[in-house]
# Entry
Amino acid sequence: MSGPGVAEIAASVRNGGRTARDVVEEHLARIASRDPELGSFLCVTAEAARARADEIDDLVGRGRDPGPLAGVPVALKDNLCTRGVPTTCASRILEGWRPPYDATVVERLLLAGAVPVGKTNLDEFAMGSSTENSAFGPTRNPLDPSRVPGGSSGGSAAAVAAGLVPVALGSDTGGSVRQPASLCGVVGVKPTYGRVSRFGLVAFASSLDQIGPITRTVDDAALALEAIWGHDPRDATSVPGRPEPLGADGEPGGPVPAEVAGLRMGIIEELTTMEGVAPSVRRAVTDAAAALEHAGAKVDTAAVPHARHALSAYYLIAPAEASSNLARYDGVRYGLRVDAPSTEEMNARTRAAGFGPEVKRRIMLGTYALSAGYYDAYYGRAQRVRTLLIRDFDAAYGCFDVLLAPTSPTVAFPLGSRTDDVLAMYGSDRCTIPSNLAGHPAVSVPWGRGEDDLPVGVQVLAPALGEAVMFRVAKVIEEAAP
# Structure
């Protein structure tokens, strides 16, 4: 389902062509009609959205500008804290928990005039690649409900692809914005680590997590990103300074220029040719590169040798950080509590009842990797691989302005087809993980259809703080896509 874009909705509300209330009612009706089949939302905040829309309309009526996202309905992944609204991370251990504060990105969306309409489904604590690990049921791909939408931000991607909202936020720890965007045929952005505040994002792996937008177009993604990024003193890893505007006129909110003449593009050979990448996906990358070359870019192959080891390094680093971050869910401070005769037994029973199988698997893997006698052999070695990967990227960006790669190795796979094959499921993120380990930005842009007439995504990677050039390349790919 298509509909007006983010900029179009905001402009119509700001100039009085439409009321924010009408826009919100239209999208709430779509959610009520389609989401029972898809399961993209865990919570729909209809009354709060209506009240918020009325506030926007009141500002417009008094001649005030509500902001660049005036009246735009937004969905929030349910690991983003929202004041007074259930924030579960799709886990029983946080079922019903209502944060007393908003995440920074939520605050900034509200300042920009957006209207949050609900919280979207995800793999529990963002651990998964298919949104089948949710404690509250899976999300289905709106293009083929027998298929997964990807993960862990599958609810956000499905909601945008189905036209339930024009923009949604997700979190990307190993590809969790870009991979579902690819499988659902929409645009998904992972900004540079530290560009978007993580304050109020429930932590999975703190050195990898980053929040990004999912939209139907590159221009919409740029507009949404400009609304949420920027320095935040509440996040110690936040990048200082004001980000460079993405629009052509040098001001936030303008359309992204489709200009690549003279830019140097490198196709990452290790990711494009690795085993398991479908022929249609390889073809999409080479076809997108040809379109960029036709637009004036210079294209060649690029080497990032340690990208082949990124998956192994990630599944030691991320679980290690998760085992530390999730230790706080002990039945004492908040969330689920299963009573027992002793505190130690209560902790164990609470965690056994509250966490799902995938979360338990990663906690155990991470705890083992950090344990005495194994730290250097596993976690320490994985961090050394991470350093080598960063050096590979530094060398590649010495020769190229941006890099190209597949987003997902395959199109959307059938529900249940990989739930018993952990290695196959983990392999879904093999092309996206390198950017998280390096902390660099990347965007997935739809490029036609592949097997079973399902969407394929092409990934544009850029050096740290290189979002402006990355978006220019993404815009050319979007305009040239079949």
